[in-house]
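Cross-posting from the chemistry board since nobody answered there.

I work mostly on the small-molecule side, so proteins are not my area. We synthesized adenosine-5'-triphosphate and want a rough idea of how it might sit in this target. Sequence and SMILES are below. Is it possible to get a predicted 3D structure of the two together?
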Amino acid sequence: MADAIVSLRNVTKTFPGGVKAVDNVSFDIAQNEFFALLGPSGCGKTTLLRMISGLETPTSGQIIIGGEDMALTPPNKRPTNMVFQSYAVFPHMTVAENVAYGLKVTGVPADETKRRVAEALEMVKLTHLAQRKPDQMSGGQRQRVALARALVKRPKVLLLDEPLSALDAKLRDEMRLELTRLQENVGITFIIVTHDQDEALSMASRIAVMDKGAVQQIATPSELYEQPTSRFIADFIGKVNLINAKVVSSSASKVVCDAKGLGRIELPHVGQAQGDIAIAVRPEKLKISEAQPKGASAIATEGKVRDVAYFGDTSHVVVRCKDDLELAVNVQNDKRAGGAGVERGQQVWIHWAPEDTLVLTE
Amino acid sequence: MDSWKVNPRVFWTLFTPGTFWLLLFFLIPLGWLFHDSFSDKISITETQFTGTLANYIRAFDAVYLTIIWKSVWISAVATALCLLTAYPIAFGICFAPAKWKPLLLLLVILPFWINLLIRTYALIAVFRTQGYLNLVLGWVGLGPYDMLYNDGAVIIGLVYVYMPFMVLPLYATIERLDRSFLEASLDLGGSQVQTFFKVTLPLTMPGIVTGIILVFIPCLGSFLTPAMLGGANAIMIGNVIEDQFKAANDWPFGSALSFLLMYVTFGALALRAFLASRSKGVDV
Ligand SMILES: Nc1ncnc2c1ncn2[C@@H]1O[C@H](COP(=O)(O)OP(=O)(O)OP(=O)(O)O)[C@@H](O)[C@H]1O
Ligand SMILES: [Mg+2]
């Protein structure tokens, strides 16, 4: 990428003891992106972020920030700043002192420091708490101190390690909006680490999904949701019905397969497919009806309602079909009366369009 | 498990022996010495309580004030040297590989297992004029120097004896220090040196204060080390007190000096409490 602000080239980190935390990762992050590293616990997200910040040294590979190789640059000389998972707000300093710290140690003149600290506190709405000590603040306020302390440095890249994980659900939603707003205002590249897919989907412009130290897919949120490239991603991002199938024949634009519980079906698919595959379909793409659906093009199967869970806006219905195939269906409760319109034990038909189905060969 | 709070009999059964022990072997002798310090010596073995303040007044004699003052500064210098040496040691142990830590800590406390007298004689063997240090210096054409029997020797001896009391509390606080504070400082552009003075040092202040108290107080009351390494001219208040109970056989005056020393100690502790209440946020 020509305008990349951060480039990783075959970055690998092996810890003493042999744990390969990050395994041959390469990608580029463009200027002003809101980039998310998403993956299950222990997949190496934090390690990758710490290598970008310089707090950890790669075993091999190259990290380039703003066109410069960072191999010999210590963390205090890098154009990056980090918001730590534990916030690491200095307990022996007031909020204002915390925010001023990074300017003072690098010799920014006192009057400029004062002005920039005031600006940063304004930005995170903490001006009224400037003289407080961190132990007299809530988790959300401390997090904003950590944010202000990093932003006041005007880094090229802001690194955030699970910044919202210590907050309660309501505050998390607020901060999520605030972070996106902030990123748009300050025009700084954000790299955020999270294991919460909702967080990544709602905030990031691009997401790298990691598993066991390796990057599985890098895509925009909607691509990741609608075009996952593997079972792992389809399953990790959102809810999905994964159905095992065997390829009967495949051509350039479609594949014919025998799927568990569905019989022989024909699906549009670009690329080669053979042997055992999985077909994936999201619960909200499925439709429920009492009668057999008309029109031959739909994929349809009959089953018995096992479970109905009511969530207000939607109901989650589980239907048991032939061959013990269980399908999850999300029904929009778009009428006040009746809820999902089906009840446990009821015999129903499930159908969906072939083009809403994904063929996963990995 | 709160039955001991609920059942008073359980409480008293557990509470009594320890209290009795303290009362018998600590408070009673202490009270007796306190009583003695207001007494007059009436014969070689007997004292009589008269409520006199003469013993305390005598303690403010210039001779004794000089010795007290000297004890304070010798202890202060020894404590400072202890801190300067112990901090890097404690820091090193904390950042050593996990499997080395127990061994390194063991090395720090190992001297405790050897009698103080023997350790002091070993120091004499090292530092005396025909000692090992002069032997080694002789190889490079230096010395021999007279290193023993002066204030410097006492300070070296005190630093050596009380070093573990400084290392252990420092180790405990540095070990508990969240590494992400140090990383945050580096990340924000602080150099290693700035990080040490602006973050590490203030955040480990509780351990520093505890170490200072644990070293300064026993230094102030020490008598074996100055007696053996200090010779006649390096006498400390501990030696004067010892003399009163032994050679001079003046228990009332010895008691008065002991209590004055204790008040100095209390003063130091009060100062610590005062500093602790001022620096909130860092729990001293
Ligand atoms: N200092 C270290 N020494 C040895 N192994 C480590 C070290 N730090 C991390 N690891 C290992 O490297 C792997 C990746 O760790 P990392 O902290 O990057 O995961 P993560 O994706 O951030 O997980 P989480 O979501 O739980 O924070 C883990 O298996 C972890 O045990
Ligand atoms: Mg992590």
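Reply from a structural biologist on the board:
Welcome over. Reading the output above for you: The interface with chain B takes residues 53-55, 74-77, 80-82, 84-86, 88, 90-92, 101-102, 105-106, 133-135, 149-150, 153 of chain A (CB under 8 Å). Chain A has two domains: 4-231, 239-360. Happy to explain the token format if needed.
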